[in-house]
Amino acid sequence: MHQKLKIVVLAKQVPDTRNVGKNAMKEDGTVNRAALPAIFNPEDMNALEQALRIKEQHPDATVELLTMGPERAAEIIREGLFRGADGGVLLTDKKFAGADTLATSYPLAQAIKQMKPNIVIAGRQAIDGDTAQVGPQVAEKLNWPQVTYAEEIVGLAGDKITIKRRLEHGVELVCAPLPLVITVHGSAAPCRPRHAKRLLANKRAHITQWGVAQVGGDESQYGLSGSPTRVKKIENIVFQAKEAKRINASEAEINELMRELITNHTLG
Amino acid sequence: MNNIIVYCEHHDGKVADISLELLTKGRSLASQLRCGLNALVIGANLKGVEHELFAFGAETVFIADESRLSPYLTLPHAAITTAVFKEEQPQVALFGATSVGRDLAPRVSSALKSGLTADCTSLEIGENNLLYQIRPAFGGNIIATIINPDHRPQMATVREGVMKKERLDVPVAGKVKILDTAKYLNDAHFAVSIIERHIEEQKIDIKGASIVVAGGYGVGSKERFNLLFDLAKALGAEVGATRAAVDAGFVDHARQIGQTGVTVRPKLYIACGISGQIQHTAGMDQSAMIISINTDPHAPINRIADYVIDGDLGDVIPKMTLAYKHHSK
User: Fold this and answer.
1) A132: nearest CB among B118, B122, B326
2) Residues of chain A with C-beta less than 8 angstroms from the C-beta of B93
3) If you average pLDDT over residues A167-194, what whole number do you get?
4) CA angle A232, A235, A236 (to 5 degrees)
5) Does the distance separating the beta carbons of B202 and A174 come in below 8 Å?
6) Cβ-contact B163, B21 below 8 angstroms
7) Which of B145, B292, B328 sits opposite A233 (nearest CB)?
8) Where are the alpha helices (DSSP H) in A39-154?
9) What gap in Å lies between CA B207 and CA B276, rounded to an integer?
10) Which domain holds residue A140?
11) Is B191 within 8 Å of A248 when comparing Cβ atoms?
12) Is residue A15 part of a domain?
């Protein structure tokens, strides 16, 4: 290794959309978002684990987290410290707010340029949007290659890294040069637990925060103004009342049921 | 200029179904927008590929055919796609929400600084001839309509199987444009290399599925479970099972739901021939909606179901699959 290894893990604090059971429903049948806890995005946890494994193999490597969000998103970076990361940066500024994936990738890429890692590892996608776009968009802005859907980082020697990818219909083993952006699939190893000593030591750790002034670059590419996409309309999914509706097995009734499920977006 | 372009995937000598679905949808969008419909294929051994694409409505087929372009690699495909979009200035660009499309489209959108909506389940032309990109978000709890008012192309990836695939009776008498790949590619685009590649049975992910079609001992046999797999495939669902069905050897253990299996909380749980023992319901009773299909009108599962279909699953499930295909766009 000519240069010391430095890994930046991209992580996001997200509402726990996986656990929207009947108890997180409002009376009108829509989701009570306030009732959902804010969590470390699950696939970003898988990403952190891959970074920590590299650090185990290469003890002089450092692992830092990078996130963007409101001030409380600093919790994400502390969570990373509890599990073995060395530090991290929170991008927080009103001007970053309202960003779509493209306007998220821009400040992240700007910050990465200042952090100067040789590997960026992110979760494949975040459970609040499920877009899987930010990783590749960051890679393009850095002009680095990307390897998506990584299941395992198999080896790292010199500036070559070998990665097993999990695809829809199989697996692929690829070799890539550094610097590189990697996105990690949920089928990768789960993250190690918190370390008791690290928890105590970092409970109130100060987290570096960068606003627009530190991130620099072209302000018009931040936040809402830097977002080409707009949300035109949001429809809440309304879930049905508890009383079971009886349906006979006739074609007409089944047809009607399927039509209803499509119309209320339960299906497709 | 200002046409619709579909990035077409080509694997093992044939055009992927998703690409043909996108062309079919692209035809109706193009006729509403009164613009052309084009296709871009990047790969190797593509001779004659245009005929299949003409049969699905492509008017101009752009082809980049070179041995290094298959299997798919991000950078060369992104370089060519980005360059073609810059030259052709399409107003709409569609990709499959596949391993390839979800890797490629964000890279291209970032290079072009244009908006991209992932995993659309419906596309419509709305006000001001904008593409309304409709997708579930927030874990499937909301449906969002996304637009790109000012940036072109308006880019979207679309999930496989949600749109119909319809061959034209008479293929379009289209044109082919062979791309000079040397103009777009350099050695740096081949920085990542594939060492090996093989098809492997997909890992079963019932926990992550937003729709689960589950069967119990009442399904009766391994063969009859195929009905559940057919419905699941149409709905984009995963197949689950009770312990009794797994113990009977109808399906793999990885699909077991309940106390001794996994716990699921999907948006929709379709219970087929499941009586509803507590050992099973403990693993699924938090599902947002439950449909029970059972010949026994008094099966305990019916007490927690939102819909109960009284009937034999051999009769009911094919009707559901057919009805879904009929109603979904």
Assistant:
1) B118
2) none
3) 93
4) 145
5) no
6) yes
7) B145
8) 42-57, 74-83, 101-115, 134-142
9) 19
10) 6-226
11) no
12) yes
Contact criterion met (CB below 8 Å) for B107 and B113: no
Neighbours of A198 (CB within 10 A): 16
Q: ipTM more than 0.90?
A: no
Q: Does a structural domain hold residue A263?
A: no
Question: pLDDT confidence of B51, banded at 50, 70, 90?
Answer: very high
CA–CA separation, A121 and A51 (whole Å): 7
Q: Which residue shows structure tokens 């105590």?
A: A200
- Which distant-in-sequence residues (6+ apart) come within 8 Å of A263 by Cβ? none
- The three-state secondary structure class of A34 is helix
Q: Tokens 């830092």 label which residue?
A: A64
SS (H, E, C) B54-104: HCCCCCEEEEEECHHHCCCCHHHHHHHHHHHHHHHCCCEEEEECCCCHHHH
pTM: 0.81
- Which segments within chain B are labelled E, that is strand? 4-8, 10-11, 14-15, 37-43, 60-65, 92-96, 116-120, 122-125, 131-137, 142-147, 154-158, 175-178, 193-199, 211-215, 238-241, 268-272, 290-294, 307-310
* Ramachandran bin of B13, using left for φ above 0, alpha for ψ from -120 to 50, beta for the remaining angles: left
From CA A193, how far away is CA B22, in angstroms rounded? 44
- Tell me the average pLDDT across A7-34: 76
pLDDT in tens, B144-191: 999 999 999 999 999 877 788 899 999 999 999 999 999 999 999 999
- The residue type at A147: V
Degrees, nearest 5: CA angle B101-B205-A176: 45
In A116-175, the residues whose Cβ lies within 8 Å of chain B are: 127-141, 145-149, 162, 166-175
Give the start-end residues of each E strand in chain A: 6-10, 13-15, 38-40, 62-68, 87-91, 119-123, 146-157, 160-167, 170-177, 180-184, 208-210, 230-236, 245-248
pLDDT over threshold 70, residue B329: no
- How many separate domains does chain A show? 1
Cβ atoms of residues B111 and A105 within 8 Å: no
DSSP-derived secondary structure letter, A224: G
Structure tokens at B74: 């991000």
- pLDDT above 70 coverage of chain B, percent: 98
User: Residue A173 sits in a domain of what CATH number?
Assistant: 3.40.50.620
| Residue A159 within any structural domain of the chain | yes
Suggest the residue from B141, B186, B322 to mutate for an interface test with chain A (most A CBs closer than 10 A).
B141
Q: What is the Cα–Cα distance from B79 to A89, expressed in whole angstroms?
A: 32
A162 with B195: Cβ contact below 8 A = yes
Tell me if A124 is assigned to some domain. Answer: yes
